[in-house]
Amino acid sequence: VIKHYESNARFIVGQGPYVAYERRFPTCHLIPMFVDSEVLEETESEDGSVHNVQRRCKLDVDAPRLLKRIAGVDYVYFSQENTLNKRERTLHIESHNETFSNRVIIHELCSYSAHPENEDWTCFEQSASLDIKSFFGFESTVEKIAMKQYASSIKKGKEIIEFYLNQLEEEGISHVPRWTPSLDAPSSSSSSTVTTKPVCATPKLLQLELPVTPAVSIPVSTDANDHKLDADYIKRYLGDLTPLQESCLIRLRQWLQESHKGKIPKDEHILRFLRARDFNMEKAREILCQSLTWRKQHQVDYLLETWTSPQVLSDYYTGGWHHHDKEGRPLYILRLGQMDTKGLVRALGEESLLRHVLSINEEGLRRCEENTKVFGRPISCWTCLVDLEGLNMRHLWRPGVKALLRIIEVVEANYPETLGRLLILRAPRVFPVLWTLVSPFIDENTRKKFLIYAGNDYQGPGGLLDYIDKEVIPDFLGGECMCEVPEGGLVPKSLYRTAEELENEDISLWTETIYQSASVFKGAPHEVVLEIIDAASVITWDFDVCKGDVVFHLYHSKRAPQLPRKDPLVGQHSSITTPGGNNVQLIDKSWTLGLDYSMVESPLTCKEGESVQGSHVTRWPGFYILQWRFHTMPGSASTNLPRVDDVLASLQVSSHKCKVMYYTEVIGSEDFRLHYLTSNARLSLFVLQLEKGHSHSLTKIVSPLLA
Fold this sequence. Notes:
GO terms for molecular function: RIG-I binding. One of its GO terms (biological process) is negative regulation of RIG-I signaling pathway. One of its GO terms (cellular component) is cytosol. The chain is built from 18 helices and 25 strands. The protein has about 700 residues and is of the alpha+beta class. Strands 1-8-7-6-5-4-3-10 form an 8-stranded antiparallel beta sheet. Helix content is about 30%, strand content about 25%.
């Protein structure tokens, strides 16, 4: 179990968090099971920079009385060692159980440290391990009790430290001086002598004067190129952020810059994913990486420039952008009750509708950026007004509902926190049926933004006028503003397409990508073979690790591997098709490395979220095999305790599966050199045209360069 959070200690700086922590001893009323503690030994370095305290803590564990009687104990004792390094501004806490240590091993580590980006913030990190060897046949019960107690302590840990920080502030203590070496004290490097203090039941750890000084605010970066701590930048483009939220944004952006080789999204976009997961770094990183891979695979960044809406959508899709709401958010209007969903699906197919909705979301992101500049404050989401007048049972056509659910799923995954408010007007009696079908697929936080009005309720108090200015209320809702959203109507059946036509078009729409997807399992790598005729050819690869960690290999063989058979149970090779991509194994199990095939590139370990590009100049003709293998973390030799990752992996089969998205190409050596020479020449010409101001020539240069 690992818990990590960061606390803003801007009012109690210096040694403040440590002073607050020490108030928990010898006992703490906020932790009922913490009965008592005593100091066994207290030492301090000669220069006073390192302070060590060893305690014995007495706990009254919330366990069944029968279990306590069988175990023969009423209380559980723990040993705790605290090390305060005033020079480094760190506090390390290590504890382990004394009671039943031959049956149960509990080991806990905690640390307080100054935040690397802002020294007035305090970081707290906590981890613990539990190993139950035997416990009178009650191993499962003890595990549940331990997890319950630990989860409770994690939840209260931050509350307790903040309680004592507030207590110090109420007492007028807003600053605790930082430690500075005295002039007559020996340096820590020249002396390691420690002074042992007498053991006492009530520790007196820190004899510091606590002068009252005004509250200290967080310093603001003045570097124009460093916006991560610039208060004006945050207020102007991101909105109100707590120090913890700002820190999460900084760390996630830094992780992307270090590990993601593709396009780095803007801070506003990263922030949406953090908010969608309540600033849980790991969860936000996972969904953001998946979304970035999805955008790259389907070229979503260029959708507004490449996607042309079919005429059927222009005529019969009853949705469009319409001014903005009172908060400056872009306003999108959808007259769903007037839309012939069945006709649109039959005429266009599910994929065209999905792509059209994606273009709407991309346009929404662009409008948010524009409105942020216009109104001078951060606008990161839009308001959607849905008019349901005319909604009836024909809108519950199963393929139409299926298409709607898929669209919701894709939008939820890739455009989180973009919907600021959803106003549903003139909801008819059939609406609860549709809502029952759709609502389970909508995130709970998103559902909280829904406001539903039946009949003409939207015209009364708390209605439309609370959110939209009277001047922009559409005419079909009783306003005076002309709305250019199409009125819809039935799509002519002459425009309907056959199922075969739609299926073929759906495939062509979403396979307009040079990338392929593959699944990698534990014990089942994915392999791709390339036949090389000319010895000096160049193999290039570009792949993204969408899930899990993999090891990439490149092998050469003079023999052609047999293609996998359709039946994976027959023969030595296998081919598996999964929703996440194919899994193909080509290297025969009877082959011997170094005899039947050889390694021509050193193994490359690739972490989840990484984007990898590379090339290899071939030395021999033959068959080159690109392989992605499941990466297994080596076990720790220093401890026999199970790793948290290993425990989780044993509980989740999906943890033994990785996903990669890849593209490979073979280029002749002459073509390879010509390709880069031509690219460099075009780049030079491009710069030259820019310097001369010949903008009319840019299109001719850039278009083939991008191609």
